[in-house]
Amino acid sequence: xxxxxxxxxxxxxxxxxxxxxxxxxxxxxxxxxxxxxxxxxxxxxxxxxxxxxxxxxxxxxxxxxxxxxxxxxxxxxxxxxxxxxxxxxxxxxxxxxxxxxxxxxxxxxxxxx
Length: 113
Known about the structure:
Blueprint: E1 6-12, H1 15-26, E2 32-35, E3 38-44, E4 47-53, E5 62-66, H2 70-79, E6 88-91, E7 94-100, E8 106-112
Parallel strand pairs: 1-4, 5-8
Antiparallel strand pairs: 2-3, 3-4, 6-7, 7-8
């Protein structure tokens, strides 16, 4: 059985503040507002990230997004005013940097090559 779509959720304490921060992270407003407590960004045809107001679980999210050009992605994120962690070498072909949102959720960006 194949998996065709990925929906990754990130719990946040304050949805309005999270929308602003994630708009800067992704460089665009949400693609969808399915209800009053969620906003969703479409990253590819079959992958989505959503933030959901869930104060009890806020700060426990962990997501890694793989990109084609890590350096360009991190530069664009920095230019939008978001602090980016150090780039680490996972192995001889894979690099990753981590970004922490205001709630403490960890969003990784990686590149394999």
